[in-house]
Write a structure and sequence with these properties.
Helices cover about 30% and strands about 25% of the residues. With about 450 residues, it is an alpha/beta fold.
Length: about 450
């Protein structure tokens, strides 16, 4: 039997897509989010036409969109997301850099836990850029795919046959579809439309997080930056923190975030004062530059997950992806990479020549592995709304706590920890005997020391 870690590794493989086989006439994607656009790119290999329906005019969209209320907040593109963008759009990284994105190597990343710098054991390359700019780059790539089209309409419902979804309703008419992908985000109404059509509405799980965001931009002087991204975490367990990162157009992007009563500064003066007072010295250097505009704030009250796999009655020819299935605590920056991995799970499903006249259970099983991995990280330590842990869960939690602590000083543990949080490896790798052994050793010897590579 294939383990979740093995399935996760298969989905995460970044080899070029297999030769496409067209098995669909028309596919319709609801929502032009990053999740929707990546799903559309996958569908373009298997459908004669792919239509992306979004209330915003995506063909001409530039900058912040009303449909992405959190878009003006800081976003981090994890390594997994970057690798899968490169998979589906070969050469994407080079074109993004040529357009203004900034390459970011591990040596340019500094992470602090209560002012203590972490050791670095992983060498990963990433891109630094804003969310609106990333969306703009992906749209430009899709506009070069001949069978993908955009339409600016508000989706109002679904059309059903006896066993399957047959089309999409929007303001000016109905679009027939051989497959519908719901990428309408955390506010998706597809569950309501299923219930109205006599199907089963997926259960919605909410885990409170009470996360408060504040983001600001500062001018970035020309030239190389020894630290292109800094992250500082406060408290144990973490109650808040801050990030600064290079962004396009010669800017620094600075974000402060906190849980519950730990609220970031919502004024320009407070943002600058906290960076100078509450975080390591590099934060103060960044905010010494000219501030561009004002602080933008955002609040997310909970992480959400819809359990489509738990529904006994689902129509065929319908799947949901991205935040429409699970929207995570954004402080872990998993949303874009989770969407990219779900797109690859969709590719694997379609390449398996499935029976599209039955509910997409095989896809749901693949998708669940991706969502479970991100959800386990995003809800760890969230506390509120979760059941009392069993003795086994408490022991496991204690061991993971030792791993997280060891990641500060042990380069080998840090490598695994970073690759898990970057969604390159399954979270179960943190509980492997080799990692736990190193973590327990590190807890007995707190001084950083060179260590041999972990047994893989």
């Amino acid at each position: 039997m294939t383990s979740a870690a093995q399935t996760f590794a298969e989905i995460g493989a970044t080899e070029p897509p297999a030769s496409p086989t067209v098995s669909l006439g028309a596919a319709v994607v609801l929502g032009g989010s990053i999740a929707g656009m990546l799903a559309a790119r996958v569908l373009a290999d298997h459908a004669e036409t792919v239509l992306i329906v979004d209330r915003d005019d995506l063909a001409t969209a530039d900058g912040h969109r009303n449909g992405v209320p959190q878009g003006n907040q800081a976003h981090v593109l994890l390594a997994a997301g970057g690798r899968h963008l490169e998979r589906w759009f070969p050469g994407f990284t080079d074109r993004a850099v040529a357009a203004g994105a900034l390459p970011l190597i591990s040596d340019q990343v500094a992470i602090y836990d209560d002012f203590i710098p972490r050791v670095s054991g992983s060498q990963l390359n990433r891109l630094a850029l804003t969310r609106p700019f990333l969306e703009q780059l992906i749209r430009a790539e899709l506009q070069g795919v001949p069978n993908v089209k955009f339409v600016a309409e508000r989706v109002t419902g679904l059309e059903f046959g006896d066993t399957a979804v047959t089309g999409v309703r929007y303001e000016s008419g109905v679009e027939p579809a051989d497959l519908v992908v719901d990428a309408l985000g955390r506010g998706s109404r597809v569950g309501d439309w299923l219930e109205e059509g006599g199907w089963e509405k997926p259960a919605l799980v909410r885990v409170p997080n009470g996360l408060n965001y504040a983001t600001a931009f500062f001018r970035r002087p020309p030239g190389d930056q020894p630290i292109g991204m800094g992250m500082a975490l406060v408290g144990s367990p973490v109650t808040g923190g801050a990030i600064f990162m290079m962004a396009e157009d010669d800017r620094w992007m600075v974000i402060q975030a906190g849980y519950g009563d730990f609220k970031p500064g919502h004024t320009n003066e407070d943002m600058i004062a906290r960076c100078r007072r509450d975080y390591p010295e590099p934060f103060g250097h960044v905010v010494d530059n000219e501030m561009l505009g004002d602080v933008a704030t955002y609040r997310q009250s909970d992480s959400r997950r819809r359990d489509y796999g738990g529904c006994e009655r689902l129509p065929a020819r319908l799947i949901s992806v991205g935040d429409a299935v699970a929207s995570f605590n954004p402080i872990f920056a998993q949303g874009i990479s989770s969407a990219a991995l779900q797109a690859s799970a969709l590719a694997g499903y379609l390449q398996s020549n499935p029976d599209l006249n039955t509910p997409a259970r095989d896809f749901l099983a693949r998708q669940k592995v991706v969502v479970d991995a991100a959800w386990s990280i995003a809800t760890s330590g969230a506390g509120a709304g979760q059941a009392r842990p069993s003795p086994t869960q408490r022991v496991r939690g204690w061991l993971i706590g030792r791993v997280v602590a060891a990641n500060l000083t042990d380069a080998s543990v840090n490598r695994v920890f970073v690759e898990v949080t970057q969604m390159l490896r399954h979270p179960s790798d943190l509980a492997s005997p080799a990692v736990v052994r190193r973590a327990l050793l590190a807890s007995r010897n707190r001084r950083p020391a060179p260590v041999p590579p972990l047994d893989r």
